[in-house]
Amino acid sequence: HDTFLLEAAARAPVIPVVTIEDPHLAAELAATLVAAGLPVVEVTLRTPRALDAIRAIAHGAPEAIVLAGTIVSPSQIGEAADAGATGIVTPGTSPRLADALAEAQIPAMPGCATVSEAMALHERGFSVLKLFPAAASGGPAWLKGIAGPLPSLRFCPTGGIDAQSAPAYLACPNVVCVGGTWVTPNALVAKGDFAAIARLAREAAALPRG
Ligand code: 3PG
């Protein structure tokens, strides 16, 4: 599972985090991101039609690697997998959710915000973690700090990151990619402004890694 996550993260420096109200836009949105150089997309389960959006991407833009985000309860794991998600992302990880993720058939990138949470997840067998909310939790300084004591962990920091702050995260040796909503702002997604999204995505895809 970690191999899948590491390979997916290696495909592009940024995972766009998208919140989709209208599933009819989902496949074109994902195809736009893939064409611009961002093949991995996290669809947050924060809207009533989010699972339909994942389903639409899995069928209509199969070249995209679609992850289901904002998974907060065990029952959502199977729902996301059934809809066609190939991976799970969580904002934080309760013990009950960690148990379910450890047993899940699809790879999971569980969220953490402290060293103790990261250690607990590592004990459970996870080594590719989401740091969330990254900026508020300590940003690049936190990531550099944890690299010494826990060198085998890898992170996808997300939360409060944009095109300006992303390079400092990507320069951290334990960062595999960053996530964020700045590539797909809700206003552009709602309007279906795929040209503007493609411009933001191309900029994000060109961000230098450390
Ligand atoms: C997430 O679920 O990962 C966050 O909502 C990311 O949001 P941000 O990039 O706007 O901080």
TrEMBL record:
Keyword annotations from UniProtKB, A to Z: Carbohydrate metabolism, Lyase, Schiff base
EC number: 4.1.2.14
The keyword Lyase is annotated on this UniProt entry: yes
GO molecular function: 2-dehydro-3-deoxy-phosphogluconate aldolase activity
Pfam families hit by this protein: Aldolase
Superkingdom of origin organism: Bacteria
Keyword Lipoprotein: no
Pathway(s) the chain acts in: Carbohydrate acid metabolism; 2-dehydro-3-deoxy-D-gluconate degradation; D-glyceraldehyde 3-phosphate and pyruvate from 2-dehydro-3-deoxy-D-gluconate: step 2/2
Top EC category: lyase
Swiss-Prot/TrEMBL catalytic activity: 2-dehydro-3-deoxy-6-phospho-D-gluconate = D-glyceraldehyde 3-phosphate + pyruvate
Subunit structure: Homotrimer.
Family of the protein in this entry: Belongs to the KHG/KDPG aldolase family.
Protein name (record): 2-dehydro-3-deoxy-phosphogluconate aldolase
Species of provenance: Salinarimonas ramus
Lineage: Bacteria, Pseudomonadati, Pseudomonadota, Alphaproteobacteria, Hyphomicrobiales
